Amino acid sequence: MVPYQQKVRELAVYRSGPNDPDLQIVLVHGAIDRAAGMIRIARRLKQHEVIRYDRRGYGRSANAPATESFSQQIDDLHAVVADRPTVIFGHSYGGVIALALATQRNSALRAVVTFEAPRAWEKWWPAPPPDEVNPADAAEHFLRRVIGNERWDGLGEAVQQRRRSEGTLMVEELRAQVTRRYDAQQIDIPLIVGVGQRSGDRAQRAASATAAEGENSRLVTIAGAGHAAPMTHPEAVAGLIRLAITDAGITN
């Protein structure tokens, strides 16, 4: 894999694979994550040019100016995509950003893939943590739920504290999703909506609703997977991206 190469809008961007003017794959990570969380997927798409980036506040973009609005997330992603033909994959909150860009009918996008993008504006989706909850505790609770207590307890203290310190940003991102940010009915390119077989009813309901709205969409369940599928089932997630490339009629 090619190491960190450049900055776009003060964000760390990582590129790997052959330079391909006809197709790039852009991977967008979720909350309490970073581009490194997408590396296992990228390794399974070596025949393609794959771009990952650390969103504001995470990884090597931790010192970039703080996010001021959700539109800034869209602008960041648009800058990473530029005007090159792109299949975009977003995990969790990264899926919200990817779907929002696709809702705007960005002309560079050929297909969009998501895995468990929330629908936090729905009445049946839980509210963000209230003000009296310590954001660091909220971050730890979230990660324990996603990766499990054993793996969390196995992280070094420095890593645990770094993840806890990202709680304030996580809560801000959760609150940003209470306003509807995407509408799959407005997406006319191929849309692959992924969900884990082991994920809860809320994730299943959200994935089904988004796929049902899309004009050219598929709902795909990854057997044995939960919300952390990019880490635990990277080959299956890469398969969703390959499916999107096929649905978009891209051959290379």
Walk me through this protein's architecture.
The chain starts with a strand and ends in a 5-residue tail after the last helix. The protein is an alpha/beta fold and 252 residues long. The protein has an eight-stranded mixed beta sheet, sandwiched between helices. It is built from ten helices and eight strands. The mean pLDDT is 93. The protein folds into two domains: 4-122 and 181-247, Alpha/Beta hydrolase fold, catalytic domain (Rossmann fold, 3-Layer(aba) Sandwich), CATH 3.40.50; 128-177, no CATH class. It has helices spanning 39-42, 70-81, 93-103, 135-147, 149-154, 157-165, 167-176, 201-213, 229-232, 234-247; strands at residues 4-8, 11-16, 24-28, 49-53, 86-91, 109-115, 191-196, 217-222. Helix 2 (70-81) crosses helix 3.
In short:
This protein is α/β, with parallel strands linked by helices and 252 residues long. The protein has helices at residues 39-42, 70-81, 93-103, 135-147, 149-154, 157-165, 167-176, 201-213, 229-232, 234-247, and strands at residues 4-8, 11-16, 24-28, 49-53, 86-91, 109-115, 191-196, 217-222. Strands 1-2-4-3-5-6-7-8 form an 8-stranded mixed beta sheet, with helices on both faces.
